[in-house]
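Predict the 3D structure for this chain.
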Amino acid sequence: MAFLSGCRMSAGSTLLLITLSWLAKKLSSPDRVLGGQQEELLAIREIVPGKWLVVAYREVGEDGFVVTAYATRRARQLDTRIQIWP
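Done. Predicted structure below.
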């Protein structure tokens, strides 16, 4: 099974492993899409109550690629971004 990333978020936290197929499912049906700081877009999806998956990606023509993905509980920081969709 191919893994997109694995990282320790902080001391005492669990190892976060995201499969490419799971990530693709979340990216294909986000709750909303926000503008990033540069040219990237942020697809946001709540994965458990109070925790969101943020997938930063770029679109190039009809193609696109994932820059990074991470989980966060900081909804207030996400709410400061410009909402692109819906």
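The longest strand covers residues 51-60.
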